[in-house]
Design brief:
Distance between the termini: 55 Å
CATH superfamily of the largest domain: Periplasmic binding protein-like II
Order of helices and strands: HHHEEEEHEHEHEEEEHEHEHEEEHHHHH
Strand order of the largest sheet: 11-10-12-9-13
Largest sheet: 5 strands, mixed
Number of domains: 2
CATH architecture of the largest domain: 3-Layer(aba) Sandwich
Helix content: 25-40%
Number of strands: 15
Strand content: 5-15%
Structural class: alpha/beta
Shape: globular
Radius of gyration: 21 Å
Length: 348
């Protein structure tokens, strides 16, 4: 089976972290002394740990341009801090590298399809700033297997990534049903490639990643995503513990994008609605008050996020939804007013 075009691009991006240790040490010291915001401003750019090979969330095109929902979130933070969404260096981090990269100071934000769990916060000294995408673990199978439910799969047909919550969830799923369990456990980032190369009849990972994988395959319709979701996978940005102001900046960037969508403020109309008299919109966009001043942000921080990047719906639709090749429905990732789980505190 053909290799993915993204493979060569990811290979190039993987070389980036090796050039960072000395700079990372300096930035970690600066962050400890004065805070992450000060280190970011002194450097003149935000460093975002992302995935370079997951369509819809983080990927690099042939021109070296990054795109994806998680990429756009980092651009939104840069827009809030600098007024320029392009003041970001994206660092491709693998599943195994990601926590070390954040702890060492090589990156300022980890935004790489990472599930929020207690053990990760406690063990890796990080904090998740919110949930940017509600995901869940699913299964994709080859259509010619004629499998319609995960319980009909033999475990030795399934490829799963080692040392991930995915592996633990799969083991729990089979154990709770008293089914034999002997999957093909592969190094992180290898399970999907093995499925694409025909080395297993099924693969399990986050449902969002399954949609992206299917879209990249030579014959997408020969593959079926099963209806079962066997876990909760809340994905979101993470930062180092001990810097409350940076944590708040990252968290409120996400909230501002959600709040803007609820208010009907989008990238296409923000320059019009800012002239209106709606007091909630005027506060959000910084026309009235400067509620983020204690965080070191200017009054128009949220305006810049929406103007340069968009609200949550703008970002979802172009990367994952109807305006993207993936065509993923909003589902849980819709506003609470439309039956989803997205709900943001007010900006006051």
């Amino acid at each position: 089976m053909r290799k993915f075009v993204a493979t060569a691009l990811v290979g190039l991006a993987l070389q980036l972290p090796s050039s960072l240790p000395a700079a990372a040490d300096r930035d970690a010291a600066a962050a400890q002394a004065g805070g992450t915001l000060e280190a970011v401003k002194a450097r003149g750019k935000l460093r975002c740990g992302a995935s370079a090979g997951l369509q819809g969330f983080g990927q690099i095109d042939i021109n070296g341009r990054w795109s994806g929902l998680e990429v756009d979130f980092c651009r939104a933070v840069a827009a809030a801090v600098f007024g320029d969404p392009d003041k970001v260096d994206f660092i491709n981090v693998s599943t195994r590298q990601r926590f070390d990269a954040l702890e060492s100071g090589s990156i300022d934000i980890l935004q790489r399809t990472t599930t929020w769990t207690l053990s990760r916060e406690a063990t890796h000294h990080l904090l998740f700033a919110g949930i940017a995408y509600y995901d869940g673990q699913g299964f994709m199978v080859r259509r010619d297997l004629r499998v319609t439910a995960a319980t009909a799969l033999a475990s030795d047909q399934i490829c799963v990534a080692q040392d991930t919550t995915t592996e633990l969830n799969l083991a729990d799923y089979f154990r709770q049903r008293g089914l034999p369990y002997a999957p093909k456990v592969l190094p992180p980032d290898a399970a999907e490639t093995a499925y694409a190369d025909g080395k297993c009849g099924a693969v399990t990972t986050d449902a969002s990643a399954l949609f992206a994988l299917r879209a990249r395959l030579p014959h997408p319709d020969d593959n079926v995503i099963l209806p079962e979701i066997i876990s909760k996978e809340p994905l979101g940005p993470a930062v180092r513990q001990g810097d409350d102001r940076w944590f708040e900046i990252v968290r409120w960037t996400l909230y501002a994008m959600i709040e803007a969508e609820e208010m009907g403020v989008s990238q296409s109309n923000v320059d019009t609605v800012i002239k209106g008299d709606n007091p909630r919109i005027r506060r959000l966009l910084g026309v009235e008050g400067n509620f983020a001043q204690p965080l070191g942000l200017t009054a128009d921080w949220a305006y810049r996020i929406i103007k340069f990047v968009g609200n949550y719906g703008d970002v979802f639709e172009r990367n994952l939804g109807g305006r993207s090749p993936l065509k993923i429905k909003r589902g849980l990732n819709d506003l609470w007013t439309r039956g989803g789980l997205l709900y943001a505190p007010p900006v006051l």
